[in-house]
Amino acid sequence: MNPVLMQKYADFAVKVGVNVKPGQNFIIQCPVEGAAFARACAKAGYEAGAKRVEVRYNDEQVSRLQMEHGDEAVLCDVKPWLVRSYLDYAEDEGSVCILNIVARDPEIYKGLDGEKIQKAMLAQRTALKAWQEYTMNSLVQWCIVAIPTVAWAKKVFPGVSNEEAVEKLWAAIFQVCRVTEEGDVVEEWKQHVKRTAARRDRMNELDLVSVRLQSANGTDLTIGLAEDAIWQGANEMAHNTKVNFIANIPTEEVFCAPHKDKVDGVVKSTRPYVYNGEIIENFTVVFEGGKVISHTAEKGEELLGKLLDSDDGSRRIGEIALVPASSPIRQSGVLFYNTLFDENAACHIAFGRGYPTNIKGGTEMTTEQLLEKGLNHSAIHEDVMVGSEDMNITGTTRTGETVTLFQNGEWAF
To answer: In terms of residue numbers, what domain contains 326?
Structure first.
């Protein structure tokens, strides 16, 4: 791993992605294997003026042991201190910002009791709901980036040594995140954000009420949009701090909120999806009146069923995101087995909760008001990839006009 590129990546993630400002508390969440990168981010945080940098390490091998040997009741008993450890900062005049560094083994829970894992995960999401409101509503600055670990790298690049797999994954991450030795990563991202924002603004100008996705593989899905829905993409502003940030690095999407009751048709996945430490592949889902009425999958069908049965909102979708086939992630030819990257290789939908920020004035609304607008509510938000190189997408405007949005997997404007 090139230390110069790693520091460039860390500096960009902290100073542009999170966009840490003087006087803020800065939380870094990182796998234990990524201590060197966490230190680089901590350095960048203090350089940006953070008054406190707190690094919280996690160990997925310990998490597997807990899932394997822990009693279900104990795993579901999430203590209040966990959410308070975030809220104590967030309630300090919104002075907290957070960087999540991810590097998960896609099959960390393979072979374990899927039902127990599902219950434990839902219990944690429920316990952290008050903190998730801060991120889902973009009240604070937050960003997600990824670094390699051996387990993840070996899944992406099998058949080579551990060291080579990790080096290859570092190289792939740097490539798709526009991090090069000779280039100016900040300037590259400024231009990328400008292009993406222009497409976002054009989508909002069209005043669409629905979009239709069609591919030769059998996908034919019509998605009605929530009332007062707005398209987002590129960067966004934290409402509490009025600071711009980039939530996901990389990001190639322009996304919007579907109406929870207005999704009809068939959609097929085009890339594997990792859920609760296991893989779902080649699924077909049928929607009627916004709800999934049937599903199949070549691999992980039972797991997909568990996802869809998570709660009342998990059989409906909370996001439709448009991503061109020419995105750097898809062009890299690498299947990352990591949603942060793979969702930026293809158009995708998300089972579960929608973002209040995708509704005009949504961050000021109650859950009930958002439901009235058609925004889906759920404890989960799971992005699954459905785009292909031959995908065509049309939109219907409020005046009834049909507009071409994508032709053969690419933006039509």
So the answer is: 206-230+254-411
